[in-house]
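Hey team,

Filing this mostly as a record. A colleague (T.K.) asked me to run one chain through the structure pipeline before their review meeting, and I want the input and output archived in the tracker in case anyone asks later how it was produced. No errors, nothing strange. Just documentation.

Input sequence:
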Amino acid sequence: MITLFKTGAYLADGAELIADDADAAAKLKRRGKAANREAARQGTITHGILSAHNSGSERELKITFDSLASHDITYVGIIQTARASGMTRFPLPYVLTNCHNSLCAVGGTINEDDHVFALSAAKKYGGIYVPPHLAVIHSYNRELMAGCGKMILGSDSHTRYGALGAMGVGEGGGELAKQLVGRTYDLSYPDVVAVYLTGTPRAGVGPQDAALAIIGAVFRNGYAKNKALEFVGDGVARLPVDFRNGIDVMTTETACWSSVWRTDGAVRDYLAAHGRAAEYRELAPKDVAYYEGAVVVDLSKVEPSIALPFHPSNVYTIRELAANAADIFAQVEKDARETLGAQGVALNLGAKLKGGGIQVEQAVIAGCSGGTFDNLSAAAGILGGKSTGNGAFSLSVYPDSQPTFAALVQSGAVSKLVAAGAVVRSAFCGPCFGAGDTPANGALSIRHTTRNFPNREGSKPGEGQLAAVALMDARSIAATAANGGRLTAADEAACGAKPTTERFFFDRSIYDKRVYDGTGRAEPDEPLVFGPNIKDWPQIPALPDSLLVKVVSYLTDPVITTDELIPSGETSSYRSNPLRLAEFTLSRKDPAYVGRAKAVQAQESARQAGGEPDAELRATYRKLAAAAVREPAGAAIGSAVYARKIGDGSAREQAASCQRVLGAAANFAREYATKRYRSNLLNWGILPFLVADEGALRLGDYVFLPGIRQAVLSKADEIKGYAVRDGADGVTEIALALGALTDAEREILAAGCLINYYRAE
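Output structure:
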């Protein structure tokens, strides 16, 4: 079904992938092509788009985007950062959607206060304000912003519009703030991987099935990490655009940097249907294009699949799961115990095995991946004339936008869904990030959404509440719903799955009547409207000459997600109040973290006030002095987190800013899971150290970093740290590295954060 090339690959005439081996030159010659790797690298769609947006060199890019996109978990912090950095207007189109906390009732007025702030900002600075319930962020941008050859930067990790020929990049808020103050997005030219699609999906197979198959093949081996995926091959033309969009948005879960697809008449028709025919142009690789890797996907062999907790890469076919459910569930339960730690809770998926099948309590089809017209039309086709039953099982569907909802009403799909027992809701991202349709304790929820990380369903293991989410395609979810919650693949003959034939009609007037579009029409005299929960960023210190950091959280999971660093869900209601939100940092993974970090903050406050160091610090200073290490008493004091691998998942900058607000100065890690998390650390002045030896540090260790400011600015390849272990004699020298940094990133670290860096200019 899926083959990964072990070498780079040439794509000849858009039709033949040729491995970059000893036979490559001969095979290309037979097609009348030359094996010129460097020239062929410029033959990709990716190269053409990046070059058109780049003001830097061929290898070190400086990108200016066509538009920006944020939602109501992130836009307040971004605008506050940009304001503090000197922004007076939005210099490019900036879409502010309200799709994440629009249904959260936590915190009194504070959710709606943020929406009011966003409207006032759109008026003052010239932005686009999309009111609550009207559209989820990525659907609006597909419908009205994405066009062939464009680049869009979003403060959400699933910023992906590649199927429409637009490269979407999801990053933390700092990167958007740079664009808002007229700076560039800087990165080294990424490796490009071809995803060659061939064949035609069978009836009952949907985009989530294809996406999960790809994720399962490439995530754990890092094949796509921080790379650009380029979808090519004859199979592309056999997929409707909504099907392509559904695969594309899930490419985030491969850990890739961005994605783009070849375009064709179907994309032209899609853009024309949305009133944007002028945004179309054909994008295709040149006669010879070179890729650093290739993933070949035979769509005809993709089966209905399921991703079990706690990651979209934990993929099985539904057929495989049904045949081996007891063994597979036992392994998932074992992995869950290791992931959750000693929190007194455990999954009990074995309890779902009933009557020779697997019983599910809840199903959801929602958001930018699930709530599309084609997905919900297919679900309605399967559920028409059937019943979801009146027991524990429930089905909720969230159309991804009001125009999609209107089209589903017009086609009759909504009446079929409602008549079958489904509950139809408004456009909302809650089920994707843990703020909507939280299942009961111990329940299993199947969802066509983007993620199934811990707590993404809204449960709180630290309080004894635990549910499980598995990802599936809308078609198999509908088949399961028609079967009363008994897990069912949509390609089973009895479920009635068939290709969607409904025609989509896009009504632009729905947006015209409610969306405020002030692009290019800033009104400087318009006041910003602040609710009582909207606070400025606190003062962040510059990087000192020397630094003493204490490891206050030590995480040894295979990977730590940004959701574990700062939980999503109801905690995000405090997103506009940095100090309040920081109280939730690591609250579900390491509840003692906040207290430990604050204790270190108190040590630094006492030092600045000229007070005497506490007993722990005095003992640390004595050990360093005995080891003839430079006197550390004048060094600033900060906290740090250690993790094996950290930063998978969301682009939310709060994963870093909350640590910084609590006095964090460093992360120590064997590996950073994504570029976006590392960028967040850099933009908030947190040193992203790489540690080769996992045994070098322990919880409670102090690490002294003499001359750290000079080491950062002088581009030192290796930085010496001196670890002091509580209760142990002596000092251990450890080798640290910061990895590749641009000159600007070094200056941001030295300044202490992005805001300080711009203020100082």
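Quick notes for T.K.: The chain has a mean pLDDT of 91. Residues 304 and 484 are 18 Å apart (CA to CA).
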